[in-house]
Design goal:
- With about 200 residues, the protein is α/β, with parallel strands linked by helices.
- The chain has a single domain, classed as Formyl transferase, N-terminal domain (Rossmann fold).
- It is about 35% helix and about 25% strand.
- The strands form two sheets. Strands 3-2-1-4-5-6-7 form a seven-stranded mixed sheet, with helices on both faces. It has a two-stranded antiparallel sheet with strand order 8-9.
- The chain is globular, with a radius of gyration of 16 Å.
- The structure holds 5-O-phosphono-beta-D-ribofuranosylamine.
- The site of 5-O-phosphono-beta-D-ribofuranosylamine has 14 residues, from α1, β5 and α6.
Length: about 200
């Protein structure tokens, strides 16, 4: 079985990256992680990748004059590594439109809320301020509109009376680690695809 060559894009600690790496260790998992790209040398996930023997590349956004040039450098690295699928996991940069169009249907993202509720940043603060009784996480196809691409999978958690953004984040993160490997698997094996702006399930 040829496994789908996948890159993971990160900016930080990389716990979702770790859950994806662990999942790809299964012999029958349909994707393999061939490259991890970070926009910061300080991203903790780089060490997780290196320990796992996965190629890493740092593309520091600050050295590029525009979003397009930054994305062009990422695109070049992806092509050089023959990547077919991208999983973003805590990657904190917004892409240019040409990049998202170029990778349309082949780029996923995870977000720590039940989208379309609470896009953007300070997600758990938003959820607590709204007083919702359940929250969760979403894996979706990444499109140019921020945190609003077609949904592939979601998981829910209860919001408890004494939750802080930190306690809620911890509960949601545990679900993220289960959800993302399953969602990536669905896409890699062609059981869900993006068609006319919708997620179509086989
Ligand atoms: C996760 O909560 C993810 O949903 C969000 O950023 C966080 C990244 O955490 N987009 P990690 O780097 O995977 O540990």
């Amino acid at each position: 079985m040829a496994r789908v060559r996948t890159a993971v894009l990160i900016s930080g600690r990389g716990s979702n990256l770790k859950s994806l790496i662990d999942a790809t260790r299964a012999r029958d998992y349909p994707a393999e992680i061939v490259l991890v790209i970070a926009n910061k040398e300080s991203a903790g996930g780089l060490d997780i990748a290196r320990t796992a023997g996965i190629a890493t590349k740092v593309v520091p956004h600050k050295i590029f004059a525009s979003r397009e040039e930054f994305d062009a450098a990422i695109d070049a690295a992806l092509r050089e590594a023959n990547v077919a699928l991208i999983a973003e996991a805590g990657f904190m940069r917004i892409h240019s439109e040409w990049f998202t169009r170029r990778w349309e249907g082949r780029i996923l993202n995870i977000h720590p809320s039940l989208l379309p509720a609470f896009p953007g940043v300070h997600v758990h603060e938003q959820a607590l301020a709204a007083g919702v009784k359940v929250s969760g996480c979403t894996v979706h196809f990444l499109t140019h509109a921020l945190d609003s691409g077609p949904i592939i999978a979601q998981a829910t958690v209860p919001v408890l009376p004494n939750d802080t953004p930190e306690t809620l984040a911890t509960r949601v993160l545990a679900e993220e680690h289960k959800l993302y490997p399953g969602a990536l698997k669905l896409v890699a094996e062609g059981k869900v695809r993006l068609e006319d702006g919708r997620a179509v399930f086989a």
